[in-house]
Amino acid sequence: MATIKLYGSKHAPCTRRVATILHELKVPFELVEVNFGEGEHQSPAYLEKQPFGQIPYIDDQGFILYETRAICRYIAAKYPASGLVPTEPKANAIFEQAACAELTNFDPSVNKVVFETVLKLMFHGTAADAAVVEAQLAILEKKLDAYDVILSKHRYIAGESLMLADLFHIPYAPLLATGGSDIMTQKPNVAKSYKELIARPSWLAYEGGVTTTTTY
């Protein structure tokens, strides 16, 4: 199995999202650290591969791909036996429904809260805007009410099998707790699903940051 090159920062949430999927599927990869402090992500060489100057992107034997969810879908499609993205039309539609829910109903508020409470201090050395945090947590709480109903009906958000849509929720969900919020454990069905996800070996493998992983 060829080794994929993962260009990103070992502590960046989106880099860890991709690394988690690679670990789930036991795909060997080499982390190529992108130096934010020196502006490497804005260099001409980097922008040639990732025109938005964001992380991560992958190089799979010359095939360049950016955007974390697209990368994860590609990896899952390359190794379809995992079942992380079903191919049967109705099952795939339910998967896409769940994936869209993560992108439109979960990620926007979570992203803002994590930026304010964790990433702002980490990368910019500035304090959180409490008003933004409060407003976004209120929005997220209502969204999680819907998640709790969904998860009362089946084990995962797209049914009884783990899929990419579930894994898309990490690594940002655990960073809510890092920032001081226990919102992911307030609703019983959400809490049960969340605790199961963050106990997976693929997530725990990179608690100290993403590292090159060529053997499992």
TrEMBL record:
EC number: 2.5.1.18
Keyword Transferase among record annotations: yes
GO terms (BP aspect): glutathione metabolic process
Keywords annotated in UniProt: Transferase
Pfam families linked to this entry: GST_C (PF00043), GST_N (PF02798)
Reactions mediated catalytically: RX + glutathione = an S-substituted glutathione + a halide anion + H(+)
SUPFAM superfamilies associated with the record: GST C-terminal domain-like, Thioredoxin-like
Gene Ontology CC annotations of this record: cytoplasm
GST N-terminal domain segment(s): 2-83
Residues in GST C-terminal domain copies: 88-216
Source domain of life: Eukaryota
A GO molecular function held by the record: glutathione transferase activity
Similarity comment: Belongs to the GST superfamily.
Full protein name: glutathione transferase
Organism from which the protein derives: Mycena rosella
